[in-house]
Design brief:
With about 325 residues, this protein is α/β, with parallel strands linked by helices. The protein is built from 10 helices and 14 strands. The chain is elongated and about 70 Å long.
């Protein structure tokens, strides 16, 4: 897969003469609705003998447009998004830098330079995709440019349990810790990448050593609580129990931590880049009257995680 980084107007790629079947959107989460578009682009490219492509944007448009005051956290940061697109068999990805200059483009100029100018032969987007200055461009306008050289497909909303599958819906489920529902919407487990850093090592004193994971910048962190997870360390997957929260039983400072106790694992992994897959919640975070009570609860959490993950293995 070839990744093209575009900064308008100074850095535009030289398009492939074959042309592209292009799925276009921000695609945070690359959820089941997004996957419809990606799969259509790949299938169309094979059918037409051209290259399959995806156009996405970085950073999130709201950072530039100023519509949101809070910091943006991504369900799938760009690195993860590119990995997933490669797994879907996409030939090319155009990562457009979302800048003030780009945001000011008229919808017509966007089509002329980023669709026709890139030799796109088939463009695929969701029914609610908008583009150009103030989001005035829509798929009806895109359709007006259709010709024998350019076909346009507008994909209707993808519904699960009578509700549209969307990044907003997934964020809500993550905030509530509903990881089974998140898995259903994404079509895979939620994923978080990070580095193992030194913690207070208190877990070792109660026979449950944990890996303290510092998440990569900009990632969405699920609700506080205890979860059944798997963690990838040095290209191997291990079952585990993850606690997200402030460890109220053992510490008073207010720094959020992500700690994973890996089952049947005993080695130092400080500095390792790891990946966590989240499967099911076990319980909410709570304060215990003593370390012994905490130790007993962690033992119960571990047994529940083993049971949950064993049943998960049977279905994967």
């Amino acid at each position: 897969m070839t990744v093209h980084y575009i900064t308008y107007p100074t850095k535009m790629p030289t398009p492939d003469n074959k042309g592209y079947a292009l799925a276009i959107g921000f695609f945070d989460g690359l959820h089941k609705g997004h996957q419809q578009l990606i799969n259509q682009a790949v299938a169309s490219a094979h059918q037409k003998g051209i290259r399959s492509a995806v156009m996405t944007f970085d950073p999130h448009p709201s950072i530039v447009l100023g519509g949101k005051k809070e910091e943006i956290f991504y369900i799938t940061p760009l690195k993860q998004k590119l990995e997933l697109l490669q797994a879907h068999g996409v030939d090319d990805v155009f990562v457009v830098r979302f800048t003030s200059d780009f945001a000011r483009l008229s919808p017509e100029t966007f089509i002329e330079q980023f669709i026709l100018g890139l030799h796109v032969r088939h463009v695929i987007a969701g029914f609610d995709f908008s583009f150009g200055s103030f989001g005035k461009g829509n798929m009806e306008l895109m359709q007006s440019y259709a010709s024998p050289q350019l076909t346009v497909t507008t994909v209707p909303k993808f519904v699960l349990d009578d509700e549209k599958v969307s990044s907003t819906r997934i964020r809500t489920e993550l905030k509530n810790g509903n990881m089974q529902q998140v898995c259903a919407l994404l079509g895979r487990p939620f994923q978080l990448d990070g580095v193992v850093v030194h913690g207070d090592k208190r877990g070792r004193t109660i026979q449950f050593p944990t890996a303290n994971v510092e998440p990569d910048e900009g990632q969405f962190i699920p609700a506080n609580g205890v979860y059944a997870v798997r963690m990838k360390v040095q290209d191997q997957w291990f079952d585990g129990v993850c606690n997200v929260g402030f460890k109220p039983t053992v510490q008073s400072e207010k720094k959020l931590s992500i700690e994973v106790h890996l089952i049947e694992f005993d080695r130092d992994i400080y500095g390792e880049q790891v990946r966590i897959h989240w499967y099911q919640p076990i319980r909410k975070e709570q304060k215990f009257p003593s370390l012994d009570a905490l130790k007993l609860q962690i033992s119960l959490d571990k047994q529940q995680a083993i049971a949950l993950l064993t049943s998960q293995h049977l279905h994967t």
